[in-house]
Design brief:
Two copies of one chain form a homodimer.
Chain A: H1 10-23, E1 32-33, H2 36-43, H3 47-59, E2 63-66, E3 70-73, E4 81-85, H4 91-97, E5 102-113, H5 116-121, E6 129-139, E7 142-152, H6 159-165, H7 169-176, E8 182-191, H8 195-201, E9 209-218, E10 221-231, E11 235-240
Parallel strand pairs in A: 4-11
Antiparallel strand pairs in A: 1-3, 2-3, 5-6, 6-7, 7-10, 8-9, 9-10
Helix pairs in contact in A: 1-3, 2-3
Chain A binds a DNA duplex through residues 9-11, 35-37, 45-49, 51-52, 54, 65-71.
DNA sequence: ATCGATTTGTCCGTATGTATT
DNA sequence: AAATACATACGGACAAATCGA
């Protein structure tokens, strides 16, 4: 299988061979592929060379390694969930409309001086108190996005109390504060997760993520700044720009 | 420097140390860091362990290795260009407004049967003829985004002729067809570049990219479907949702 | 619940190739 | 041409997670 004469690195040759197996469906989604030792015997390569090939494909998202279990063909995640962004957005409804099961978990909520990025986004003096809360949102039991949220204490004095008792963020704004926040500005960026993000999203640190920053306004007030981190292997975000004919496909 | 007792992998400890040096500007942008051999001597680690740390940071975009020369601190690209998306968008103007120099290059333009994704997006029968053209767009001389564009031949019969003679895509639509196309729908996804994309964008295949798909409409007609691939290390895309008070910061 | 087998993760060592200076 | 620096490939050893008997 491996040609040791042509000058192409063995690990790249092996990576191509593995990719072919996947593309031809000989090894299908979620299936366990031969262990490193097996492949090294089959191809007359050292285990480390096999590991190089496997690592190469893991970074690219084609394979997934699990310590103690083995290496698996990554699940193709094309259009796992197209998450529609709109000015007023509610995760729970959005996911339910797609026929999936949403799940939210507030990881913490604490009052702190506003860090630089948050104070800039909320146009506050740096160091003014904000509530900083982190939410992990799942779809069908899979971690989907992690968000760090910052809200001025001055505007929402008992937000922490409300959050602990309420089911959803939207509900708190709507029922308790009689506000209907809307998105003001969003930014999109591709990158890698930090260690803690990778752990909470249950992805390896080499999986790309989609970072979306948002500011929410209501009644002319900057209510909340959010830094969201979506799993790149699951999430497709979409925006519909106009409401008129023709309807957008998909 | 490296604590061999606490049970944290040496290469992760070293990666953190290197990151600290970078973040504290002790090692600054573009600067060459000590060679693998030097670091392995300094930290009493094997060269392979050092390589693991360096590779880890390369994948994450913090370092850049050049064979035969050394390893360098990657150029920080925070907010290199915030690219504002709006319903009607013109790359050239957009970049000029940010005080940068735009550059466009049409790589090819050919007539082909519509591939599946394009025919779905344009709501055509699969296989109907489309013009497929690829554009590489640079900012200040750096490759910024690569786009594959599909337009129905039926609607724009001599688009290929026009594109070869005109300066910009917008000009062709506006001047020749008297159309002012607008975005209909956009989707965002994080991922990795294909081999050819990585080459054209001059990034290594481990750098994440931001994929943005768009459909353009004018006068109720689906004019163009575009798959754009933005360099994840350079591009931040932004959207302003509302026009009223307060102004968005940044 | 324990133990052993399997599998991936980390770490060290050595040698040689290739690109740059 | 020589020295330097990263790339590839081989070897061995033990750790840590998982799974099934």
């Amino acid at each position: 299988m491996i040609n040791k004469e042509i000058g192409i690195p063995y690990y790249l040759q092996l990576a191509s061979l593995i990719e072919e197996k996947i593309n031809s469906r000989l090894w299908s989604e979620g299936e366990k592929i031969p262990s490193e030792i097996e492949m090294s015997r089959m191809c007359h390569l050292n285990r480390h060379t096999v590991r190089q090939a496997v690592d190469y494909l893991c970074v690219r998202g084609a394979l997934l390694k699990v310590k103690g279990r083995g290496t698996f063909v990554a699940k193709s995640t094309v259009d796992f969930l197209e998450y529609k962004l709109s000015p007023e957005n509610r995760f729970t409804d959005n996911v339910r409309q797609a026929g999936k099961r949403p799940d939210n978990r507030m990881l913490f909520c604490e009052q702190t001086p506003a860090p630089g990025h948050a104070s800039r986004a909320l146009m506050m003096a740096p160091g003014e108190p904000v509530f900083h809360f982190r939410i992990l949102r799942k779809v069908d039991g899979k971690p989907f996005l992690l968000s760090d949220n910052y809200s001025p204490v001055k505007l929402l004095p008992d937000l922490d109390q409300q959050l602990s008792s309420a089911a959803s963020l939207f509900e708190v704004y709507h029922k308790h504060y009689q506000m209907q926040p809307r998105r003001r500005k969003s930014t999109f960026k591709a990158g890698f997760p930090r260690e803690d993000e990778a752990r909470l999203l249950q992805i390896n640190p080499g999986t790309p993520v989609l970072r979306v920053d948002n500011t929410l306004v209501a009644s002319g007030l900057l209510l909340q700044y959010t830094q969201a981190c979506y799993r790149g292997d699951l999430a497709v975000l979409s925006i519909e720009w106009e409401e008129d004919y023709p309807p957008a496909p998909g």
